Amino acid sequence: ILNNKIVKPTPVKEGMNILGSSIHLNTVPEKYRKLKLIGRGTTSLVFELNDHEVIILTRDEMKNDWLQHSNLAQYVETLELSHPKILLANKPVYVLKMPKLFKLDSKNKKIIKAVQNLYDKQNQIRGSDYHTFINRLTEEIEKFFHDQESLNDFMSFISNYDQGQYSFDFLERNFMQDTNGKIIATDPIVSQ
Q1: Among 95, 94, 112, which Cα is nearest to 176's?
Q2: Buried b / exposed e across 52-62, counting CB within 10 Å, b at 16+?
Q3: Tens digits of residue pLDDT in 135-165
Q4: d(CA 157, CA 3)
Q5: Which end of the chain is less packed: N or C, by CB atoms within 10 Å?
Q6: Backbone phi, then psi, for 147, in 5-degree steps?
Q7: CA–CA dist 20, 7 (Å, integer)
Q8: Taking the CA of residue 171 as centre, how many other CA atoms within 13 Å lie in the half-sphere pointing to its CB?
Q9: pTM as predicted
Q10: How far apart are CA 91 and CA 164, in angstroms?
Q11: Which spans in the chain are helix H?
Q12: 47 near 37, Cβ under 8 Å?
C-alpha cells in the first residue's frame, strides 16, 4: 500500500525475460534498491555494495542458514516485504552481506560437473534410506574433492536436516569462486 493505494508489485525485467524472483524489486527498501542489481534467482536478489562486497536479499531459509553457518555471510537484518502470493508474503526476507564472488573458471566448472555426476549416480541407487544416501554422497565428495572445503562443509551441514526440508540444486550457477579460485557453494539447496 502506497499513499492509500494498493500497489501491485511488478517483476523486474531483464532484456526479454521476466525475473522469477520471490522478491519484487519495487518492494525492496530504497537503501538496497539504489545499489546495482548484479544477480537474481528464484528466491534471491544480489546487489553490489562496493568493489568487494555484495548484499543478498533472500526468502530461502536454508540458504540464509548455510551462508551464515559457513561464515560466508554476515546477517544484516530481516525484512517483511509484500508479495502477491500470500505464502511468499508471509516469509521473511533475510538481508546478508558477503564478499563478492565470481563465476567458475573452466577447472572449477569441471569439478562441479563431476560433483553433479556423483550426485546423479548416488541418487539413482539411493533407495529409501536417505541417511545412507547422504553418507555415501559425502564419502564420495570427500574422496574425490578432499581439497574443496566448501563442498565438504556443505555436506556436513546438510546432514543435520531432514530430507523433507530441502531439495538439492547442484547446478553450476549455484557455485561460485573466490578471488583465490576456491569453489564456494552459494546455493546448492532449495528450502521446501
Answers
A1: 112
A2: eebbbbbbbbb
A3: 777 777 777 666 667 677 877 787 777 777 8
A4: 45
A5: N
A6: -90, 5
A7: 19
A8: 8
A9: 0.79
A10: 18
A11: 30-33, 61-69, 86-89, 106-124, 130-144, 149-158
A12: yes
